[in-house]
Design goal:
Layout: E1 20-24, E2 31-32, E3 35-36, H1 40-54, E4 58-62, H2 74-80, E5 87-89, H3 95-102, E6 109-112, H4 126-133, E7 138-141, E8 163-165, H5 167-178, E9 186-190, H6 195-205, E10 211-214, H7 218-225, E11 251-252, E12 257-261, E13 264-268, E14 278-282, H8 284-296, E15 299-303, H9 315-326, E16 330-334, H10 336-344, E17 353-354, H11 359-367, H12 371-379
Helix pairs in contact: 6-11, 8-9
């Protein structure tokens, strides 16, 4: 039964045989040495692709990858061949893309090259959206993780084709909507960096959640505002010096941290950091103190690692992942490093939902919508 106002391809009851369906798919995956190093998003993308293939649609996949426009989806093409046969076009639009499109049979899949090789994509250019739309009869957005961007393949295109959400997109929307109205006690754990972008989210969720634990580099901003020495630790441009957040009873901070100087690490309290030391993880006592809140919680929302996960400081992020997995809470997690930690421990099945989204998850939790979601809804009004 439909209990949302998002047009869904699964609920549209369309005859898709022979229909060209353009799918904005979540294929922005990490690549190392020309190989996909983590296939989590690809596996999420399969649900919609298989749904369309089973109905004999002609599926044209589009996506961006990486941050540089010269990056290629060729490694993604190689990785997807493990799951189903497909073709790869080294162009996005133009003569070769049109030719390969015209030779498709029912149930075929064609992957086009990285959308961001064309600068008009990020400009939400109507002309580029028109070129993409000319390839298809129906458009499906299955890329929730990119939907906080108003780009041509996410926004402008919705005005040009019958437009629907994919299965993965709809699941993201449904699960993230649940944690916006959580069963209590509810615990929000927020890590990573860039507090200036996350402050509105923290302020909003103080009214919704019982406790908010701030870890990762975000905690450094609180330590600095409290007047502690933070050495050469990463901080954001936000100043919390006069913020009511500093003394808010719902906000919990690490009680110990791992610091490093000249290659030597130690665990210390936040008020005993020395000049030139760098905070690179929270400490084990912080995790131990979190345990009672985790075991008591009925809802746990977690985004962002507790330390510099990518550069060799994963310990407390992994410890936290184990604790939440062992809890009976409804647990929703997002952010690349956070999900990678859970996957590395093979704990995926112990969580209620793992989101493919990082920035889009935080934007949706803050605003309750996304530019690409708005475009989908407008197309049906």
């Amino acid at each position: 039964m439909q209990d949302h106002n998002i047009p869904s391809i699964a609920e549209a009851n369309l005859n898709l045989q022979g229909v060209y369906v353009l799918v904005r798919s979540p294929l922005n995956v990490p690549v190392e040495n020309h190989k996909v190093s983590n296939a989590f998003r690809l596996k999420q993308a399969l649900h919609t692709i298989e749904f369309l293939r089973e109905r004999k649609a002609r599926v044209i996949l589009i996506s961006h990858i990486g941050r540089e426009e010269q990056e290629t989806l060729a490694p993604v093409y190689e990785a997807l061949q493990e799951y189903f046969p497909l073709s790869f076009c080294p162009e996005i639009t133009g003569a070769q893309a049109t030719s390969m499109r015209n030779s498709m049979q029912d149930g075929d899949v064609l992957l086009l090259e990285n959308l961001r090789r064309d600068p008009r994509e990020t400009e939400d250019d109507a002309g580029f959206a028109q070129e993409l739309a000319a390839l298809a009869d129906v458009y499906v957005n299955d890329d929730f993780a990119a939907s906080h961007r108003a780009h041509a393949s996410l926004s402008a295109i919705c005005a040009l084709l019958p437009s629907y959400a994919g299965l993965s997109f709809l699941q993201e929307y449904t699960e993230l909507s649940k944690v916006m109205h959580p069963p209590h006690p509810a615990l929000f754990i927020l890590g990573g960096a860039k507090f200036e972008t996350k402050m509105p989210l923290v302020e909003k969720y103080l009214d919704i959640y019982d406790d908010i634990f701030i870890g990762g580099a975000l905690a450094n901003d609180f330590f600095k505002a409290k007047g502690y020495e933070i050495g050469d630790s990463l901080v954001s441009s936000a100043s919390l010096a006069d913020s009511a957040l500093l003394a808010h009873p719902k906000i919990k901070l690490p009680v110990d941290v791992v610091v490093v100087k000249d290659g030597v690490s130690r665990v210390t309290t936040p008020d005993a950091i020395l000049p030139k030391e760098v905070i690179l993880d929270i400490g084990p006592r912080s995790i131990a103190e979190l345990e009672s809140s985790i075991m008591r919680a009925r809802t746990i929302l977690w985004n962002g690692p507790m330390g510099n996960y990518e550069h060799g400081y994963p310990d407390q992020t992994l410890a936290l992942a184990r604790l939440i997995a062992a809890s009976e809470a409804y647990s929703v997690v997002g952010g690349g490093d956070t999900v990678a930690a859970i996957e590395s421990l093979d704990l995926n099945a112990q969580y209620s939902f793992l989101s493919t989204a990082g920035g889009a998850m935080l934007t949706f939790l803050e605003l309750g919508s996304l530019p690409a979601l708005d475009a989908l809804q407008r197309s049906h009004n």
